[in-house]
Amino acid sequence: MYAVTGVTGQVGGAVARALIAGGQSIRVIVRDPGKAQEWAAQGAEIAVANFSDRASLAEAFDGTDGVYAMLPANFAPDPNFTEARAIILALRQALESTKTNKVCFLSSVGAQHDHGLGLITQLYLLEQEMRSLLLPTAFVRPGWFMENSNWDIPVVRASQQLPAFLQPLDRAFPMVATEDIGRAIANVLQQEWSGNRVVEIEGPKRYSQNDLAEIFGSLMGTQVQANAVPRDQWAAQFEAQGAAPNVLGPRIEMLDGFNSGWIDFEGQGAEHIVGKRTMEEVLTAALSKS
């Protein structure tokens, strides 16, 4: 049996689906048991735990063949990443006090660096804390999520314009679908190893913002133009979307890291997986639901 956190999110849900499809039994870990009924209907055990509660996490992890763990998404962290540090500590203490055979963490491209990461700093902190666990430990580092482009659908439909923060417009970035990430993590959990592993994953090809505009246009039957949003307008645009001015720094620093090429795969010493799902498939699915 495998313990899976984050099943109400994209990657955790994909991990759980892949394990079930492979005939494995799972224990899904949720804060609200009312959100776990679809998993119970598929035969999953349900464990209720809070990410900041070491005792409930330890109980949820106990007696499993492996654990998939992640940090809850936090796009507005305080400057010291206080919430992430507290969750990381609780996860570590829970894993140290329970019986499980291995653990796989969701990390990120670029998490090998100790600076210049913005939001990804939280995952650097996670990796550094967990590397000394006395358990086989894997850190899965995906590229940019393809599903991030789903947020652009309303704007593209209304204006035939794709506002681009990844720049320059013709630079192809490593991107990956969350279903591919979930399958990779499920496969890793079913393997045997010792020590620490780093597993990088990206999709079958890399995409520029010009590529995305072309894909949007093809799927929508119209012409779509990618427009680079000037950096000095980023803060105003994020505030217009509802972000508080005092928490924009990490988000902007992360984008700067991608655009400069600083945030990239480590390469040497890491395993590298190429997924199957294309951006066309991801956007086709998203457009059909919007």
Provide an overview of this structure.
β4 (66-69), α4 (82-96) and β5 (103-106) form a beta-alpha-beta unit. This protein has helices at 10-21, 37-40, 54-61, 82-96, 121-130, 153-159, 178-189, 209-220, 234-240, 249-260, 279-289; strands at 2-5, 26-30, 45-48, 66-69, 103-106, 137-142, 144-145, 161-164, 175-176, 196-202, 225-228, 271-274. It has a single domain (2-289), classed as Rossmann fold, CATH 3.40.50.720. The protein is of the alpha/beta class and 290 residues long. An eight-stranded parallel beta sheet has the order 3-2-1-4-5-6-10-12, sandwiched between helices. The model has no long low-confidence stretch (mean pLDDT 96). 40% of the residues are buried. It is built from eleven helices and twelve strands.
Which terms summarize this structure?
two-stranded parallel ribbon; eight-stranded parallel β-sheet; 11 helices; globular; Rossmann fold; 12 strands; 290 residues; alpha/beta; 17% strand
The computed structural class is alpha/beta
CATH architecture: 3-Layer(aba) Sandwich
Instruction: Label the overall shape.
Output: globular
Oligomerization status of the protein chains: single chain
Largest sheet, order of strands side by side?
3-2-1-4-5-6-10-12
Computed CA radius of gyration, to the nearest angstrom? 19 Å
**SSE string:** EHEHEHEHEHEEHEEHEHEHHEH
Low-confidence runs of at least 5 consecutive residues:
none
Number of helices: 11
| The CATH superfamily title | NAD(P)-binding Rossmann-like Domain
Biggest pleated-sheet summary: 8 strands, parallel
Mean pLDDT: 96
CATH topology: Rossmann fold
How widely separated are the two ends? 36 Å
